[in-house]
Amino acid sequence: LRGSKSFTAALPGETERNGHGLGYKSVSVGHLEAPPLSPSRLSLGRASSTATSTAAPEQGRPRDYLVLAIFSCFCPVWPINIVALVFSIMSRNSGQQGDTDGARRLGRMARLLSIVSIVLGTIIIVLYISLSVRGNPAF
């Protein structure tokens, strides 16, 4: 047996006589009139997700430097560039949750660690190439 979503209720106005002398009207659950919300209850509510999601990207979303962090993963300084990648992902998650200050802070840290990783990686590669060429003379 399925339950019905309609019931009979005593509502003021637009009632019909049902033979018992009482005014009743058959209505469905979706058509009940709710009392208007007071202004204080409206202000305590959270903003709708459509209003916040459309306004946030327009106001300069903080950068997460994910591409730079991925590029730094090709340098041979593994612990630093992996941490930079993690900070970049954390920055992206913070930005999506609306924490712009945290996203900026984590994004700056990801950028710094990515740059350090790229610089150190370049130095290591140059040193390796120069030492391997000097160690094996072509004569």
Automatic annotation (TrEMBL):
Highest taxon above the source species: Eukaryota
Biased composition (Low complexity): 47-56
Annotated stretches, region: Disordered: 1-21, 38-57
GO cellular component terms, A-Z: membrane
Primary residence: membrane
TM ranges: 65-89, 110-131
Keywords assigned by UniProt, alphabetized: Membrane, Transmembrane, Transmembrane helix
Localization annotation: Membrane
UniProt keyword Transmembrane present: yes
Keyword Coiled coil: no
InterPro entries the record matches: CD225/Dispanin, CD225/Dispanin_fam
Family note: Belongs to the CD225/Dispanin family.
Identification of the protein by name: TUSC5 protein
